[in-house]
Amino acid sequence: MTSKNRVAEILLIEDNLGDVLLTKEAFRSTHFKYNLRIAKDGDEALKMLSRQGQFNESPLPDLILLDLSLPKIDGREVLEKIKNNSTLKDIPVIILSGSAAESDMTSSYDLHANSYVVKPDNFDDLKEIVTSIENYWFNKQNHNTLDKTIH
Fold first, then answer.
1. What is the domain extent for residue 132?
2. Chain centroid, CA 116 distance in Å
3. CA–CA separation, 100 vs 58, rounded Å?
């Protein structure tokens, strides 16, 4: 998804400060170059993605981590707006939610989420999830292998 010399742009849309801090710490344990930007609610996320106001110079993310339970604009609505926007629809969106409800998973996939991950109970599991994200979405060697397998 990114070249070796380019920094991966990741947007975390999360209102829980504790989850933000844990996610930042988990990303610090990775081996790839990234810029993790944070949107604290759905409204701010949509402004960042549409480059409105103070975000007019912001780069588009290479990947979005989206919580479903957000203030102002719910995560489902944010996901729907992303996937219905011709400029944003190809950005992978991983739902990172505290909900393990099948209805939340189904509705997220119906709205074209690329993945659904239930927030883990401990930091080591979160680090493992972040490493999986790095390996799947940003490790070019793995993508080349995957591409050869698919074709």
1. 8-150
2. 10
3. 32
Q: Could you give the C-alpha distances from 138 to 7, 36, 111, 118, 124, in angstroms and in order?
A: 10, 14, 23, 21, 20
CB 64 within 8 A of CB 108: no
Residues 3-56: pLDDT tens digits?
A: 456 788 999 999 999 999 999 999 998 877 889 999 999 999 999 999 988 888
pTM exceeding the 0.85 threshold for the entire prediction: yes
| Local confidence band at 149 (pLDDT 50, 70, 90 cut-offs) | very low
Here the CATH number for the domain that contains residue 123 is 3.40.50.2300
| 119 found inside a domain | yes
Residue 38 belongs to a domain: yes
In a domain, residue 50? The reply is yes
Residue 17 lies in a domain: yes
Q: What is the mean pLDDT of residues 113-130?
A: 93
What is the tally of structural domains in the chain? Answer: 1
Question: Which strand (E) or helix (H) includes residue 38?
Answer: strand 34-39
Rounded CA-CA distance 150/25 in Å is 34
Looking at the DSSP bridge assignments, the partners of residue 64 are 11, 93
